[in-house]
């Protein structure tokens, strides 16, 4: 069962499409003293050596694990472009991540503000479980350049990942706050601090 937000705590949902700079913004929130739940890092840990999800994923997707846990390239090849396989993987991963998130909330019960860093916040309906949504955004050329610079990334793989995400324009339209990352780091950090100040003042949009 999802723990409801307390009257003294605001949950910010932080999201953004691939390559938009969400991790950089999440680190800025953390640097400002805001507890951040990193969904991606949680998944990596659960899928790493001895991770709680390794056996279940190997059973459903044979040959995708090894001594180091999940072989992300092999798993990605097994699910990208296959909606049924992706749903099967999500059915394994999402409940475990939810449980970790509830533990995070319990640990930070007294924090007035926390951040859920969730890449697919809108796509999974997670926006219904937060109080405000922050979308991290950059121009399409900057996004593509960043993603294609990643090791092992190809235009075809980028397009496959991108096709599973809501368009940036729609995310921005549904956001309470938009933080740009195709500007200087100082400008992005200033935007983060403005969001924190607005939330603390009980404002939005």
Question: What's the topology here?
Answer:
Blueprint lengths: L9 E6 L6 H10 L4 E3 H8 L7 H7 L4 E2 L2 E2 L1 H8 L3 H25 L5 E5 L14 E6 L2 H9 L6 H9 L4 H7 L2 E4 L4 H16 L5
Parallel strand pairs: 1-5, 1-6, 2-5, 6-7
Antiparallel strand pairs: 3-4
Can you offer a commentary on this structure?
Helix 2 packs across helix 5. The two termini are 29 Å apart. The protein is 48% helix and 14% strand. The strands form two sheets. It has a five-stranded parallel sheet, sandwiched between helices. Strands 3-4 form a two-stranded antiparallel ribbon. With 205 residues, the protein is α/β, with parallel strands linked by helices. A hairpin with a 2-residue loop joins strand 3 and strand 4. It folds into two domains: 129 residues, Rossmann fold, CATH 3.40.50; 67 residues, no CATH class.
What share of residues is helical?
40-55%
Q: Give the H and E element order.
A: EHEHHEEHHEEHHHEH
Quickly count the domains: 2
Q: Which topology of the largest domain does CATH recognise?
A: Rossmann fold
Distance between the termini: 29 Å
């Amino acid at each position: 069962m999802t723990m409801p937000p307390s009257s003294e705590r605001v949950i910010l949902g932080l999201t953004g499409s691939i390559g938009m700079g969400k991790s950089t913004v999440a680190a800025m929130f953390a640097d400002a003293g805001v507890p951040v739940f990193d969904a991606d890092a949680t998944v990596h840990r659960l899928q790493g050596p001895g991770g709680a999800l390794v056996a279940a994923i190997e059973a459903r997707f044979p040959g995708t694990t090894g001594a180091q846990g999940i072989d992300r390239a092999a798993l990605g090849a097994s699910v990208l472009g296959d909606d049924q396989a992706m749903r099967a993987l999500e059915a394994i991963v999402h409940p475990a991540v939810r449980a970790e998130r509830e533990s995070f909330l319990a640990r930070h019960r007294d924090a007035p503000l926390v951040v859920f860093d969730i890449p697919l916040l809108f796509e999974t309906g997670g926006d219904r479980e937060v109080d405000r949504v922050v979308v991290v955004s950059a121009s399409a050329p900057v996004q593509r350049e960043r993603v294609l610079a990643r090791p092992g990334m190809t235009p075809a793989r980028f397009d496959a990942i991108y096709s599973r995400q809501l368009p940036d324009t729609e995310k921005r339209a549904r956001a309470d706050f938009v933080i740009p990352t195709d500007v200087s780091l100082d400008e992005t950090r200033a935007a983060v601090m403005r969001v924190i100040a607005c939330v603390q003042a009980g404002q939005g949009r």
